[in-house]
Amino acid sequence: MSTISRSHKNGITTLRLNRPEKRNAINWDMTHTLAEEIASSAEDQDCRCLVLRGSNGHFAAGRDLSDVSSDTPFETVLENDDAWAAIFDTLSGMNKPSLAAVEGYAVAGGFTLAMGCDFVIAEQSSKFGALEMRGGFPAALNTAVLSRLIGPRFSLELLLSTDLFDAPYLHQMGLINHLADGSKNLESIVRSKATSLAALDPLAVKLTKETHRAVSSLPLREGLTVGKHLNALLLCGGRFDVAKQLHDNRIKSR
C-alpha cells in the first residue's frame, strides 16, 4: 500500500499521507514521494487546487527519522533533506492554491507541512507544535516557514517550545484560516473551500499568487506600483471585457 495516495475530482487534487500505524509520520520514502507528487500537481493543468491531509484521524506526527543512524552517509541524509526542502519550495512557488486539512496531530515536520500550504483548515481539537526542542534539535525548516507567516515573538514562541498548541490558539495568531467543529464539519469546510478555489480563473490565481510573493518584501509604494502596472497591462491586454462584465455584475447585485 502506498504511503501517499492521490485522488483527483473536479479540479481538486488530494494527496493523503497514508501511514496510520505511525500517525502518518513522514519517513524517507514518503518524503521523496510527496515531493514528486506535489511537483507533479504543480505542473498538472487539470489540478486547480491541491489539498494535503492525513489518514485515520491525524495529519502527521512529524518526520520519522528511524531511517537514519550515526553510520548513514552525510550525502544520503542531505539528499533526503533536499527532497524535504523541495516540498516547501514547490508549495511556495506553485501558481495554484494549496490547502491543508488538519485533524489530530500536526507536529514537528507535520506542523511545517501544514504551515507550508496557502490555507489551513483545522478541526478545533487538533494539536500543533514544533516539538523539535524536546530532543534538543532546532526547528530548522519550520523556522524558515513560520518567520514568513507571523511576527518574531509568536514564531519564536512556537519554535522554542516543547508544548503542544491547540487549533484555536493558532487561529488567533492567524496561522489557521478556518476552524471546524468535528470531522464532518471539517469535510464540509474543506470541500466548500477547495471547490471555490478550483472554480477561480487559473490565470487570475497565477498572477495574484505571483504578485503576492513579489510585493511581500516591498515597501507599500513599490507594491502599489507593481499592482497598478499589472492592472493596466491586463486591461490593455484583452481582459477589459471580463473586468467590465464583473463590474456590471457587481452593480446589478447591489
Describe what you observe in this structure.
By secondary structure, the chain is an alpha/beta fold. It is 51% helix and 15% strand. It has helices spanning 28-43, 74-93, 109-115, 140-146, 152-159, 167-173, 183-198, 202-215, 220-253; strands at 4-9, 12-17, 49-53, 98-102, 105-107, 119-123, 127-129, 165-166, 178-180. The strands form two sheets. Strands 1-2-3-4-6-9 form a six-stranded mixed sheet, with helices on both faces. A hairpin with a 2-residue loop joins β1 (4-9) and β2. The longest helix has 34 residues, at 220-253. The chain is globular and about 60 Å long. The model has no long low-confidence stretch (mean pLDDT 88).
Give the topology.
Elements: E1 4-9, E2 12-17, H1 28-43, E3 49-53, H2 74-93, E4 98-102, E5 105-107, H3 109-115, E6 119-123, E7 127-129, H4 140-146, H5 152-159, E8 165-166, H6 167-173, E9 178-180, H7 183-198, H8 202-215, H9 220-253
Parallel strand pairs: 2-3, 3-4, 4-6, 5-7, 6-9
Antiparallel strand pairs: 1-2, 7-8
Largest sheet: 6 strands, mixed
Beginning-to-end CA distance, first to last residue = 53 Å
Which regions have little confidence, pLDDT < 50, spanning 5+ residues?
none
SS class? alpha/beta
